Amino acid sequence: MLLKARAVENQCYVLAANRVGLDQKNNHYIGDSQLISPLGEEMKLINDIESIKTFIIESTDLELIHEKLPFLKDI
User: What is the domain range of residue 66?
Assistant: First the structure.
């Protein structure tokens, strides 16, 4: 939920990478990295263990969002 809030309030994509595997205290981490859109929408949930993913983000999509919601001009 907080990742979605950061994406919306900053009008940017948020990519959150989470760890996988075991730590020294035997805590198990399953990944669950996420890509969130500037509108707070979960675009991808990456829960593959130890994989590499590539995403293409179009700058035109971000520009359209900034045109529709120009609240960053208030700063």
Answer: 2-74
- Does the predicted TM-score (pTM) go above 0.85? no
The answer to whether 66 touches 75, Cβ cutoff 8 Å, is no
Q: Which residues contact 35 (CB under 8 A, 6 or more apart)?
A: 13, 14, 15, 16, 42, 43, 44, 46, 55
Q: How confident is the model at residue 48 (pLDDT cuts 50, 70, 90)?
A: low
Q: From CA 13, how far away is CA 3, in angstroms rounded?
A: 10
Residue 2 has pLDDT above 70, yes or no: yes
User: How many domains in the chain?
Assistant: 1
Among 41, 34, 31, CA closest to 11? 41
Q: pLDDT over 70 for what percent of the chain?
A: 92
HSE (side-chain half, CA atoms, 13 Å) at 19: 6
